[in-house]
Amino acid sequence: MAGPALFQVDKSLEKPERVMLVGVMLSADFSGANETRERSFQTALDEAADLVRASGGDLVHIETAKRDKPHTALFVGTGKAEELADAVARHEIELVVFNHELTPTQERNLEKTLQCRVLDRVGLILAIFARRAQSQEGKLQVELAQLTHLSGRLVRGYGHLKSQKGGIGLKGPGETQLETDRRLIGQKITALKKQLQNVQKQRATRRKSRLSGALPTFALVGYTNAGKSSLFNRLTKADVLAKDQLFATLDTTARRLYLSPEASVILTDTVGFVRDLPHKLVSAFSATLEETALADVLLHVVDASNADFERQMDDVNLVLKEIGADKVPQLVVYNKIDLPSDLPRAPGILRDAEGVAAAVNISVTEGLGLAQLREAVIERAVAVKLQNQSK
């Protein structure tokens, strides 16, 4: 099912769009010493560059700026906006992406000033999801998120037309068009929600069938590109798409995993999270993310080679809280320990003060620590079964 044209990729184009990325260091967004703030900002900018590439764009130029707070009309201010306009002309830019959430007014004003399309971080992530969704459920969820995003911009975007009144007994053309667009988008959103409700019922039926065997459910969660799908494939011998790119997986997959005579579990792979994951996407993907909230244990996969892995873990936990999964017990899986990092790790289980397996160091690529991971999962699975039996 196709989404709004704003987010569609024209596959007939021979060349990808030439993109300029804009990152603004806002005082409120980054705290700490200057060196720490600079590193955090650069990490966020690098991630945004990866998002642009994941969307299929050709990133040809990056611009940065510093501000105490966003400019009301242009986000970056008039002087910087003029600099950006010069860069657009100089580099023949077709699309400018801001690594921030823009208001409809800011987006519209920037497009007038820069004389090209402008997309904010929410729109960029929506564009990636639109490219990656494979299942009917995934496509429905993406389209719902797109329309919800578009409707908010539509309502506020036509504000300048509200004063256009027609003659007696007539409405102004701006108001009539606005009401028509509102109605059409509202009807589409309602229809999509009904379709997703049906999908949720089907998912609930399949889940009930899976749980009838009383097997503990483990859900893989983590920052996008942490290695969840690669781990899922390695453990279950599945063939879920696993690529070194952001948001390679959008659709939830579940498999029965035999671990030992006393322990088998249901393992599910889920969509990866990212910094400032748009609320619209969290809401739209509630049917998929419900699998996470209902799991017995979360396997929180972390890219241990990333210098910013602790912040990524915090971002994941924020989303888990938003979907009601923050109370689900976690087993942290530090992946990619074979890669250079600030904190070298040896494969094995890390236990808490009570002796319970709290984390495991592994490398999916090199096969390091996987036996210990299975041991830790068995331990947790047996504990879940005993807990369920005592209820």
CATH class wording of the largest domain: Alpha Beta
| Widest sheet, order of strands | 6-7-5-8-9-11-10
What is the succession of H and E elements?
Answer: EHEHEHEHHHEHEEHHEHEEEH
CATH architecture designation of the largest domain: 3-Layer(aba) Sandwich
Q: Can you tell me the residue ranges where pLDDT is under 50 for at least 5 consecutive residues?
A: 1-13, 155-175, 241-246
What's the number of extended β-strand segments? Answer: 11
Shape, per Cα inertia axes: globular
Briefly note the structural class of the backbone.
Answer: alpha/beta
* Tally of individual helices: 11
Rg, Cα atoms, Å: 23 Å
Instruction: Estimate the strand proportion.
Output: 15-25%
- Major sheet description: 7 strands, mixed
Domains (count): 3
User: Share of helix among residues?
Assistant: 40-55%
Task: Name the CATH homologous superfamily of the largest domain.
Answer: P-loop containing nucleotide triphosphate hydrolases
Instruction: Please tell me the overall pLDDT.
Output: 81
Distance between the termini: 45 Å
CATH fold title of the largest domain: Rossmann fold
